[in-house]
Design a protein that fits this description.
Number of domains: 1
Helix content: over 70%
Number of strands: 0
Number of helices: 11
Structural class: mainly alpha
Length: 280
Amino acid sequence: MIEAIGGIVIGLCLGLLGSGGSILTVPVLVYLLQHDPKAAIAESLAIVGGIALVGAIEPAIRKRIDWPSVVFFGIPGIGGTVFGAWVAQYMSGVVQLVLFSIVMLLASVLMLRGKQQAEEAPTTRTVQDYVLIVIEGLGVGALTGIVGVGGGFLIVPALVLLGRLPMRLAVGTSLLIIALKSGAGFLEYHGQMVEAGVPIAWKTIGVFIGLGAVGTLIGGSIGGRLPQHRLKQVFAVFLIVMGGVILVKEGRKLVTANAQIEQIEPVDAVARVEVSTATD
């Protein structure tokens, strides 16, 4: 039941906003389905990538995808994602979740600020615009690899503000970019999971993608009739709540772990002194 509801809700968010899938997926996998954080991040990339790929089919048919943006944002994003996933193997799951919560809070700020975005943005772009898009692609890609988010909440504002795309075109383009980056990140994580012997819940991934695909088609249909800025405001409030809860929950774990380390170190120091004295 949780998998069914989660898949549909994630799909609705992607279809409506072109973002938000991973922001929901990771907490559902970790806190409701009790998956290992490392595995949850990898599974999230597979789930969101699969749902986004299906969701991008309709915009592609309706010519609501800006292919130059896919190239200039998506390809650097793939490279950044692979790099981020490689870096993540040296980080604990708790640290990744803390970073994830911070990303959620950052996303809420971007969503709230996004209310001023025009529905019909200028479509002419300069060389400087393309350079900024490439840099943004690399940065969002690295973030995708480290914390397991598709990065749509950063991609959509970047395409509108830097790529000068209309909101409707940015949403469709974002879905395809998310699919490409998430797929690359999952492949990198999959190798790490196999090496570490951490199981991946393929059945859960399949259920999420199947129902999420339905949700994203519904969301895309509804999104054409609703004001985007109002949807973003509601979603931003949700991000603030969820991000705050995860930050407090995982932050406590970090503080507790550091406190335990500090308690152990003085004991080790005393032991070393005693050994040294006995030797003398």
